[in-house]
Structure formats: C-alpha cells, structure tokens
Amino acid sequence: MDMGVSLMILAAGMGKRYGGMKQLDRLGPSGETIMDYSVYDALHAGFERVVFVVRRHFEKEFTQSVVKRLQNHIEVTLAFQEADDLPSGFDCPPSREKPWGTGHAIWSARKSIGESFAVINADDFYGRKAFETMAGFLQHIPESSEGEYAMAAYRLIDTLSEHGQVSRGICQVDNEGYLKSVSEHGGIEKTPGGPILSHTSGQTLDPGELVSMNFWGFTPDIFNHLGERFTGFLSRKQHDAEAEFYIPSVVDALVREKKARVKVLEGQARWFGVTHRADREKAVERLRQMTGMGMYPKRLFQ
C-alpha cells in the first residue's frame, strides 16, 4: 500500500557566494524560483505536503512570496531553523550568528513531520525523474520501518559550476546499489587543463564519480539519530562559531555503524543550480529551454 510522503525544502541559507537570498531569485519565464519547479515536480510525482525550513525573521517575506502562491496546490508547513534551537543542556554562544548546518536544519523540523519524507536544497534543480524515483521508494517503505533511507545520486561532471568551486559528497556504492560511504570534498573545480581537482583534499576526481546533492529520503527515526549526533557534535564544537553539522556526515556514520542502509537511486535527470551569481544566466536559459520544449508550462502555478 502506498504511504503519504512529504518533501522538506531547506531554505534557511543566505547564499553568501551568490550575493543574496537566492532561494527567492525569480529565474523562470514567468518569475518562478527553482523551489517552484521542485514543488511542481514533487506534486506531480505524488508528494502530498511540503515543509519549508526557513529563518524566523524571514517568515513574513517567505509567506508572501512563496506560501501564498503554493497553498492552493499543495499543503504547506513552515519550520524554523534558529541557532539557539539546541538539545537540552546547551546554550548558543553569543558569537554564533548563523544556524548549525544541514543536519541541524532537518532536525529543526522534527515536530513538523511524522511520516517518511524527502529532503532537498532550495537552490538546486533536481529534475522530475529524481522526484518520481524518490517518491516511489518512500511510498513503498512499510509504515513502521526504521533506517530505510535513499539518496538521489548524480555524476560529478554534471554538478560542477563554470564560475567557481563547489562542495560535493563523493559516494561509494556496493554491488547491490547501497551506499557504503559518503565523504565531503570542498573546493572542487574543473581545472583549465581538464582534470577535476578537489583543492581541499588535493585529489584528482573521476568525472563519473557518484555524488550526493543533498536529495535524501528518510524514515522519521532520522530525527532521533540527528538529536543524538547533534548532542555529540555540540559537546566538541559548541564554541566554534563556524562549525557546521552536516547531514552527509550523519548518514555516513549511520551506514558505517549499520544503523541504516541507504539505497542509491541513479539515473536522474541532469542537475543544475546557482551556487555562484554567475550561474544564474545558465539556469535562466535552461528553464527557458525546458519550457519551450513543453516540459513545463509557462506559468507553473495558475
């Protein structure tokens, strides 16, 4: 029996490299954001609800710009990621201005979701096929299951920016299509000579490497795991004003400890995004082309 599933969109980031709130940048032919395309694809793939994780000071603007446009088409809930939303026993240091990363963002929505759900970034275009594949996986998980997760995988070469460095989770997959490990590599770019280099690790990377673009599928038990891991993280990093609690690190640890297994869903449509401001022009053109081909209507939400 198919189960109802929700989509969580992480929209609390400021986009420093981009130069503003890129989640609200209107890139589509009729002023759509990339989030609009994600919600449109998710709705047509069978997702029944969307939960946006935002900053509380952003609530009014987000409601006016996004929620009111979508609420007649899909159930919409807001959850709030704030730096002082911490496990019992911890206080936010005064020097901390930003929240604690993607793991913290998901944990921030722990009171808003009780069913299996997918997670995506607000500023990434994942493609209709990815939502259909993820919905199919989540809808067929038995209701009481725990630790049955999934990840939409993309080829590294298809996820690079022509305008600067990016960070990607490089994945190792076993013969049955399950994740063995995911390791974060920063400073990745295609060099003038051709090779793809990770400046953080100093490694040359294979263009065909499978990478995580933060499109995950989880059962609700992930919130307990996040709470436990976040507590451990804070015990070490509470006073580090720049430390971030990333979801790939949590998933990697759970897989290694055999507390979860993650099905790697390959064969997705080509990803694109707007990491850097200069990526915007290409994203606008891609959306214009897909609209012209009839893949999307000129206005997504009438």
Mean model confidence by pLDDT? 90
**Helical segment tally?**
7
Order of helices and strands: EHEHEHEEHEEEEEEHHEEH
β content, as a range?
Answer: 15-25%
Quaternary form: single chain
Walkthrough of the structure:
This protein has 302 residues and is of the alpha/beta class. Strands 1, 2, 3, 4, 6, 7, 8, 9, 10, 11 and 12 form an eleven-stranded mixed beta sheet that branches. A two-stranded antiparallel ribbon has the order 5-13. It starts with 5 loop residues before the first strand and ends in a 10-residue tail after the last helix. 27% of the residues lie in helices and 25% in strands. The radius of gyration is 18 Å and the shape is globular. It contains seven helices and 13 strands. The longest helix has 16 residues.
Short description:
This protein has 302 residues and is of the alpha/beta class. Helices cover 27% and strands 25% of the residues.
Topology:
Layout: E1 6-10, H1 34-45, E2 49-54, H2 59-70, E3 75-80, H3 102-107, E4 117-121, E5 124-125, H4 128-139, E6 148-155, E7 166-173, E8 179-190, E9 196-198, E10 203-205, E11 210-218, H5 222-237, H6 247-256, E12 261-265, E13 272-273, H7 280-292
Parallel strand pairs: 1-2, 1-4, 2-3, 6-12
Antiparallel strand pairs: 4-11, 5-13, 6-11, 7-8, 7-11, 8-9, 9-10
Helix pairs in contact: 1-4
